[in-house]
Each structure stands twice: as structure tokens, then as C-alpha cells.
Amino acid sequence: MTLNTAFLYLLIIIVFCFQTKKKIVIRKLDMCKGQGKYPVMFSNATTSYNKQSQEMWFGVNIDVDKEVSNNFTMAFDFIRCDASGNPDSCEYVIKNYVNKEICKYMGMKNQAWTVFVDYVHPPLKCPIKPATYKLVNSPVKADFLRTLPIGDAVWKVTFRGYDNDVYLACVNLELQVIPFVREGRRG
Ligand SMILES: *[C@@H]1O[C@H](CO)[C@@H](O)[C@H](O)[C@H]1NC(C)=O
Ligand SMILES: *[C@@H]1O[C@H](CO)[C@@H](O)[C@H](O)[C@H]1NC(C)=O
């Protein structure tokens, strides 16, 4: 397998977020470049949008080659760029925020991310056994977006996963947040 086949290009997800009056476009989701094969690989990301119900679904396969213990840890970077995404405008808002209790958060109910965890088959729980996990038709909820510290801009978010000191995966997500104006209506 070449590294290229592991890259995911999510072309466009548009999420209408009525509560915050923002439109979110996921411009890209892929494995971080230039670092070879990881014990955890994401592939086959898909999205679909139902115009009538204005609902968005998200799917992805997660290949886990190596058991992940209860010490599953994630580190996050949030980089904000101007609305055009011009690289010169980009700056770190959060750099290397480390959370060592990902297993605890994964097990919580009624949280913004629960909707993603609940739609994974087989069920995702720690310790995470080697398998191909599939996130199928997970609805993308506005609730999730409200928990992100995001304003109108292009955001580049990097997630790095570790098990103790073992590097598991690195994923880049690029989001664009634009003020949402309902067409042809007011209020
Ligand atoms: C991704 O989709 C292709 C084509 O449907 C399939 O052959 C492949 O096994 C899938 N990858 C994973 C990890 O499921
Ligand atoms: C998790 O981390 C603690 C503290 O570093 C360590 O004592 C423990 O052995 C680790 N558990 C596993 C399953 O690796």
C-alpha cells in the first residue's frame, strides 16, 4: 500500500448550523503527510447530505492494527487562518493540548462527541482491540460544532494519538466557518 492510498480527501461537507448561524465546510480530512504507516489508519471517508431534512452524515473506516490501552492519549493543535486560508495568515490558537483521558471521554454519554462514538461498529471501547471499525452514517450535529472554539475563519486541526509513548496516528482536518445567511428569508 502506498501512503497516498491512505490519504482521505473529503471534498465538501456543508453543515448548516442554525443555532450559531454559521456554515461549516469540511475542506479536507487526511492522515498527516510524510510519516509512513501508522498503527491506526483512517480511510474511505464519506459524507452525504440530505437537502430536504438538511442533515449531514459522515462515515469513515478506522483500521486498528495494534491494541490501544486505557492510556489512550490525544494531542490537539488548532491553527486559525484568514477566510481565504492564506498560509501567511495562519497562527496557532491551541498548540499541543494533551488529553490523557480519552478513554474516559469516549465512555461518557450525552456529550458532543457521543454521536460519533455511538455510530462506530464494532463498539469503540478501551482497551481498543485490533479490528476495522466503521463509523457509518453518523449524523453531524450542530452541537458538536458549538463545542469547538471556532469563529469565522479557516481552521486547521491536527489530532495526534498515542498509547503511552507509542505514536498511533496523526490526522489533519481542515474546516471553513462562514457566517450563514438564509437565502430569500429574514429572521
Ligand atoms: C475502502 O473501500 C474500498 C472500495 O470499496 C475497499 O476495497 C477497501 O477495503 C476499503 N477500505 C477499508 C479499510 O475498509
Ligand atoms: C498506563 O500509565 C500508567 C502511568 O504511566 C502506567 O503505570 C500503566 O502501566 C499504563 N497502563 C498500560 C495498560 O499501559
Describe the structure.
- It comes from Exocentrus adspersus.
- Keywords: Signal.
- This is MD-2-related lipid-recognition domain-containing protein.
- InterPro entries: GM2-AP_sf.
- The radius of gyration is 17 Å and the shape is globular.
- Strand 9 and strand 10 form a beta hairpin.
- The N terminus and C terminus are likely disordered.
- The strands form two sheets. Strands 1-2-10-9-5-6 form a six-stranded antiparallel β-sheet, with no helix packed on it. A four-stranded antiparallel β-sheet has the order 3-4-8-7.
- It is mostly beta strands and 187 residues long.
- The longest helix is centred in the middle third of the chain and has 5 residues.
- The relative contact order is 0.26.
- It contains four helices and ten strands.
- Helices cover 10% and strands 49% of the residues.
Brief descriptors of the model:
4-stranded antiparallel β-sheet, binds 2-acetamido-2-deoxy-beta-D-glucopyranose, disordered N terminus, 49% strand, 187 residues
Shape: globular
Q: Structural class of the helix and strand makeup?
A: mainly beta
Beta fraction of the residues? over 45%
The distinct bound ligands, ions and cofactors come out as: 2-acetamido-2-deoxy-beta-D-glucopyranose
Number of DSSP strand runs? 10
Main sheet summary:
6 strands, antiparallel
Helix-residue proportion: 10-25%
Please state the CA-atom Rg, rounded to the nearest Å. Answer: 17 Å
User: N-to-C SSE series?
Assistant: HEEEEEEHHEEHEE
C-alpha termini separation:
52 Å
Q: Whole-number average pLDDT? A: 77
Helical run tally: 4
Low-pLDDT runs of 5+ residues are 1-20, 183-187
Instruction: Give the strand order of the largest sheet, numbering strands 1, 2, ... along the chain.
Output: 1-2-10-9-5-6
InterPro entries: GM2-AP_sf
Keywords: Signal
Protein name: MD-2-related lipid-recognition domain-containing protein
Signal peptide: 1-17
